[in-house]
Design brief:
Blueprint lengths: L6 E6 L6 H14 L4 E5 L5 H11 L9 H25 L3 E5 L2 H11 L4 H12 L6 E6 L2 H11 L12 H17 L4 E5 L4 H15 L4
Parallel strand pairs: 1-3, 1-4, 2-3, 4-5
Helix pairs in contact: 1-8, 2-3, 3-5, 4-5, 4-7
The protein binds thymidine-5'-phosphate.
The site of thymidine-5'-phosphate has 11 residues, from helix 4.
């Protein structure tokens, strides 16, 4: 938490982890306690970021995109988002709940797409400046469960990012677990295969402890 009371929490996890449901639940808990919550996401979160999101996920022009261009587009969306939404929100004492942030880049572009660690981490640092989440919640599910859930939910064809094979999502999952092990002070991993209610209870317990919300 900052001096202004601003709280920045990012959610991470692979496709079908159930993080969107948990973000909505956590927002309700904060709002019930009178906190102003900003729900936002990456890629996206600003008009520019939402255009970039379209390019990354749905536009015909995005198919055939090389991993280097993909990395830079995610970073461009993030740079704008940090300066237009996240930093001002934290500075004015809001609770920012962000669906994915820089760890998605480390894991998807770095670990799963196998881009070298150095450009990935330096581009991440350049994009975020000093806006690091106070807490990052990983909603962890085995890749098979996540993909089965995502397939059930998809009303139309999978988007460009959802067309990878199972090994890709296994790397994504392992990438998050490795990051959490390396940075236990920032990360909280919750078992996303549990009932929605139980996952929400575990997350709220962690949040109240971390931010001394009583
Ligand atoms: P989602 O918002 O439905 O989770 O879709 C975002 C997709 O983009 C998802 O497949 C994860 C991927 N992604 C990256 O590869 N790198 C990133 O930095 C971010 C934010 C998302």
């Amino acid at each position: 938490m900052t001096d202004t009371g601003g709280i920045f929490i990012s959610f991470e996890g692979s496709e079908g982890s159930g993080k969107s449901t948990q973000i909505a639940r956590l927002a309700k808990e904060f709002e019930a306690r009178g906190r102003e919550v900003v729900l936002t996401r990456e890629p996206g979160g600003t008009p520019l970021g939402e255009e970039i999101r379209h390019l990354l996920k749905h536009a015909d022009a995005g198919f055939g995109m090389c991993p280097e261009a993909e990395l830079l587009l995610f970073a461009a969306s993030r740079a704008q988002h940090v300066r237009e939404v996240i930093q001002p929100g934290i500075a004015s004492g809001k609770v920012i709940l962000c669906d994915r942030f820089l760890d998605s880049t480390t894991v998807y572009q770095g670990v799963a797409r196998k881009l070298s660690e150095d450009p990935v981490s330096s581009i991440n640092r350049f994009a975020v400046g000093d806006a690091m989440p106070h807490l990052t919640i990983v909603v962890d599910v085995p890749a098979e469960i996540g993909l089965a859930r995502a397939a059930k939910r998809a009303s139309d064809l999978p988007d460009r990012m959802e067309q990878e094979n199972i090994e890709f999502y296994q790397h994504v999952r392992q990438g998050y677990l490795d990051l959490a092990e390396q940075m236990p002070e920032r990360f909280f991993v919750v078992d996303g295969a549990l009932a929605v209610e139980d996952v929400a209870t575990l997350i709220w317990a962690e949040v109240t402890e971390q931010f001394k919300l009583a």
